[in-house]
Amino acid sequence: MAWNVFKFCTALRAFGSIMIVFFLGLVGVTYYAAVVAYYGPHLFRGGFDTLIAVAFLFLFHLLLVMVLWTYATVVLTDPGGVPLNWRPLREEEKGDADPLVGLGYGIAKIGTNQSAVPGDFKNLDIGFCLKCNRLKPPRAHHCSICNRCILKMDHHCGWVANCVGALNYKSFLLFLFYTSLAAILVCLALLRVFMEIFNDDEVDLTPGKLAATFIAFVLNLAFAVSVLGFLIMHITLVGANWTTIEFQAKDKKTGLTWRYDLGWRKNYEQVFGTEKKLWLIPVYSKDDIRRMPALQGFEYPTRPNWDPQH
């Protein structure tokens, strides 16, 4: 009998909850080591020490707010599920003015056939999920852990106990960005104390504070390296408009060009929106939500004159 890895899906969901607790615990240890044990008391020393402490505490708390905000958004936001009776819209239902035309996007036209069966929309990348037994929009994939199809699914992330998809991908990328910055800042701030521990220098900290500092430094260093590498990978994927799932399966594609690659600027706009002032926070403008169907996860513009054979 074949080994079924999906029998562990329930355990993986429980594991995600454990990872949330672990991450929040890491935040707590880091806060205690960096703020309570070390830089907080430096505020009252005066002179250059106070200036350094003020600068660090300001940057640290700013990044901490952004880390927790983006993390909560990824965890609590539904990544986007496929409605029970979803069908692609007829051309006449879209209206005469496609909101993407003004932004310079081209978009695949969907036919008027509404009596859809598997394979009817192969050229438009509209699939059929055998597990859900219904149509799924372009770029949607079935998550065996969540047991449903996710719009523009990138991957299921154990660290957030949630899928990363169309509606929370921006928040996920911002979480990686702010977490890597915060981890690097903490490592630089605690490096001196960490080195003093191994140089047998006298450190003005209690054993408990030394242990917390050691743990915080090591874990933040590990986070800085791993999360930064993960962030670079995702920035590269966004620049070419791939999801992780699509990139892993790209050797199976028949075409040499990716139908959704519109150039790096428009590719990034499909994730971050067109409002530059909102790029660094996990929200979109109402105009972007109205004008860009890609932000909702159901409809994606394609390369003009895209040919799967070239």
Task: Report on the architecture of this protein.
It is an enzyme of class 2 (transferase). It is found in: Endomembrane system. It catalyses: L-cysteinyl-[protein] + hexadecanoyl-CoA = S-hexadecanoyl-L-cysteinyl-[protein] + CoA. Belongs to the DHHC palmitoyltransferase family. This is S-acyltransferase. Helix 4 packs antiparallel against helix 5 (207-240). The protein contains eight helices and six strands. Among the domains are: 12-81 and 166-228; 121-160, no CATH class. A hairpin with a 4-residue loop joins strand 1 (127-129) and strand 2 (134-136). With 310 residues, the protein is mainly alpha-helical. The strands form three sheets. Strands 1-2 form a two-stranded antiparallel ribbon. Strands 3-4 form a two-stranded antiparallel sheet. Strands 5-6 form a two-stranded antiparallel sheet. The longest helix has 34 residues, at 9-42.
End-to-end Cα distance: 42 Å
Q: How many separate helices?
A: 8
Number of strands: 6
Largest sheet: 2 strands, antiparallel
Global outline:
elongated
Strands side by side in the biggest sheet: 1-2
Question: DSSP strand (E) fraction?
Answer: 5-15%
Q: Give the SSE order as H and E letters.
A: HHHEEEEEEHHHHH
- Average pLDDT: 82
Mind telling me the C-alpha Rg? 24 Å
Tell me roughly what share of residues is in helical segments. Answer: 40-55%
Outline the low-pLDDT stretches.
1-8, 95-123
Going by helix content, strand content and strand pairing, the class is: mainly alpha
Domain Palmitoyltransferase DHHC: 127-249
Transmembrane segments: 12-39, 51-77, 172-194, 214-240
Enzyme class: transferase
Protein name: S-acyltransferase
